[in-house]
Amino acid sequence: MAFTRLLVDKVVAITGATTGIGRAIALEMIRQGAKVAVNYYPDETQTANAMSLKLEICEIVKEDGDAWFHAVAGDISLPESGRQLVKETVEKFGKLDVFVSNAGICPFYDFFTITEEIVYKTVNTNLTGAYFAVQAAARQMKEQGTGGSIIGISSISALVGGEYQTHYTPTKAGILSLMQSCAVALGKYGIRCNALLPGTIRTGINEDDLNGDKGEKMSLRVPLGRLGLPDDLAGPAVFLASEMARYVTGAQILVDGGLFVNLQ
C-alpha cells in the first residue's frame, strides 16, 4: 500500500539541526516530502556534521541534495543568526512554511558554583536566541499570508526541577510559554505554535552520562521501558508541521515514554 507523504511542497527551517533531535527531525521531514534548511553552530565539528547530513539526504532523495537541503552557519544565541536562517531559506526555496526552534545546550552545573558566563550563555542560546529566531520566522509567515507552523522544542524539564539544571529548566519553561503566547499572538494570521517536550533522549550530548547504571536506572522509571532516541521526536514534529494538525495550536506534547506521569 502506498502512503501519502505529509509534507510535500512544504519548506522547513530548523535550528541546531545537524545532530541529535534536530537532525532526526530534518531527515524525517525530508522523507515526508519537505525541503529543509538547517542552522548549525559554526565550528569544525558541526560543519562536518552538516556535510554528512547533506550526504544522508542525497541517499533519501536519490538525487543532488542541493535541491532539497540548505545549511546556514550561525550561533543561534545571536539574534542575527535566526534572521539569517529565515532569509536564506526564503532565498533558496521561495517561502517558509514550518519553523522548528530546536537549538539548545544543556550543561550540568551546581547551583552554588555556576558562573555568570554559563548562565548567560544557556539563556541566550536556549531562550533569547530562540525568541528572535521565532520572531523572524513569524514575520516571514505573516508576510506570505499563507499561515504556517512553528514548533518549539521544549523539554520535560519545563515541568519538573533538576538539581544541576537550575539554569536550564527555566529556559525550557520559557520555550513552552513562548509557544503558548505566540499561539495567541499569531493565530489571527493562521500561524500555529506548539511545543514538543522530550523526556530523557539519548543524544551525543548525554550519551556518556547515560551509559551504565544511570541510564539503566532511568529506563526503569519509564513506562515504555527505555530511554528515548532522537527519532522518537521526528513523528510528533511531522504531525505538528502537517495539515493533520491544522486545528492544533498552543499545545504541549510530551514525548517521554510516559516518564512524567510516573514521576514520584
From TrEMBL:
CDD domains assigned: SDR_c
Keyword NADP appears in the UniProt entry: yes
Entry GO MF terms: oxidoreductase activity, acting on the CH-OH group of donors, NAD or NADP as acceptor; quinone binding
Top-level taxon of the source organism: Eukaryota
PANTHER family: (3R)-3-HYDROXYACYL-COA DEHYDROGENASE, SHORT-CHAIN DEHYDROGENASES/REDUCTASES FAMILY MEMBER
Transmembrane segments: none
Source lineage: Eukaryota, Fungi, Dikarya, Ascomycota, Saccharomycotina
Family according to the record: Belongs to the short-chain dehydrogenases/reductases (SDR) family.
Any GO BP: rhamnose catabolic process
Organism name: Lipomyces tetrasporus
Entry annotated with the keyword NADP: yes
Pfam families the record matches: adh_short_C2
Keywords annotated in UniProt: NADP, Oxidoreductase, Rhamnose metabolism
Protein's recorded name: Peroxisomal 2,4-dienoyl-CoA reductase
